[in-house]
Amino acid sequence: MSHIVTTVWEGGVQFESDNPSGKTVKIDTDVEGQERQGLSPKAMMLTSLAGCSGLDVVSILEKMKAQPEKFKIVTKGHLTDEHPKYYHTVEVEYHFYGNNLEPAKIDKAVNLSIEKYCGVMEMFRRFATIKTSIHFH
């Protein structure tokens, strides 16, 4: 299976990239005096990691009939000092909110994503140390 993405330069440091579903995303970076219109490429990598794992977790929890009231993932990427700068360590914090949380089911769902299902997590493991934590609120 292949994915094809087309990325088109829109001038300056802005690009628009499509995705196999037909949706688009704006890509740019910080330039003094210019308003940001999109995400930076490295931030998109962290977004992809959180999105991939988050989709796994909510799908698994739905099957377990254990969905939280609110769920968010905070992803922190730590860059190397030298060029080319890349994430050497990534922290993924899973935050669950609600009055009737089921920690055992949530732990199982998160760990299944981390260890078995999330392909983006596996890609990150090829170049970075991944640290994960689960928080109940």
From TrEMBL:
SUPFAM superfamilies: OsmC-like (SSF82784). It holds the Pfam family OsmC. It comes from the Bacteria. This is OsmC family protein. It comes from Paucihalobacter ruber.
